[in-house]
């Protein structure tokens, strides 16, 4: 979170995540010719001053020659968004989009970018990080500290449910992942209780759009 930008509390991050999920669900099921995004990652999400998310760079795989598409899949692996099955089939589909969204939702909840860290060279595996925390019974410690501010009950505010949903999206077996329509339904059912936390009276709105 850069200086001068509003703090991304849970209400705001939830709105962003739900907006991304709705956009992907529309691409998958809302068109006569369904579209696979094929490049879901935080770099391809724009957020305006009202925390409305807009996904960009979708369906690029339809425009690319196979060699370039393969490079894009390799980049997804380096960035930590690549579904396991892409190792063998190298063709994105709605289920690989769901996996990448799960990683993105973990990024929103944990506050860390997946994949290779440019400074240390360390590879950040977000699903593994959550699994270790669950085994060690330190699940609450994986959440970004800014996310927990103002939260009385992570369970009642939908944080724990969102974490479970993200891990479900990241399931190694593609067939057990939820559809994006199901993801939208679950996020809508587990909204933060304090919706007033979306905005602060001291913040101004210019209508600008910035990268997430």
TrEMBL record:
Pfam families: PK_Tyr_Ser-Thr. Keywords: Kinase, Transferase. InterPro entries: Kinase-like_dom_sf, Prot_kinase_dom, Ser-Thr/Tyr_kinase_cat_dom, Ser/Thr_kinase-like, Tyr_kinase_cat_dom. It comes from Trifolium medium. Residues 187-212 are annotated as: Disordered. Residues 1-212 form the Protein kinase domain. SUPFAM superfamilies: Protein kinase-like (PK-like) (SSF56112). One of its GO terms (molecular function) is ATP binding. Coiled coil: none annotated. It comes from the Eukaryota. Residues 197-212 have a biased composition (Polar residues). This is Kinase-like protein TMKL1-like.
């Amino acid at each position: 979170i850069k200086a001068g930008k509003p703090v991304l509390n849970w209400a705001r991050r939830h709105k962003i995540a739900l907006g991304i999920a709705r956009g992907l669900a529309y691409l998958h099921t809302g068109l006569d010719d369904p579209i696979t995004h094929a490049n879901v990652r935080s770099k391809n999400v724009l957020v305006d001053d009202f925390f409305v998310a807009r996904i960009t760079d979708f369906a690029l795989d339809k425009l690319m020659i196979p060699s370039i598409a393969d490079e894009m899949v390799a980049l997804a692996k380096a960035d930590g968004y690549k579904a396991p099955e892409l190792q063998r089939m190298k063709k994105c589909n709605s289920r690989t989009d769901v996996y990448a969204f799960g990683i993105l939702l973990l990024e929103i909840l944990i506050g860390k970018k997946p994949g290779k860290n440019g400074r240390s060279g360390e590879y950040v595996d977000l699903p593994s990080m959550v699994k270790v925390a669950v085994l060690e019974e330190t699940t609450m410690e994986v959440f970004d500290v800014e996310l927990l501010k103002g939260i009385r009950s992570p369970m009642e505010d939908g944080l724990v449910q969102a974490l479970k949903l993200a891990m479900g999206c990241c399931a190694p077996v593609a067939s057990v992942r939820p559809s994006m329509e199901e993801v939208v339904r679950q996020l809508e059912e587990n909204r933060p209780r304090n919706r007033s936390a979306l905005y602060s009276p001291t913040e101004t709105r210019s209508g600008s759009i910035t990268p997430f």
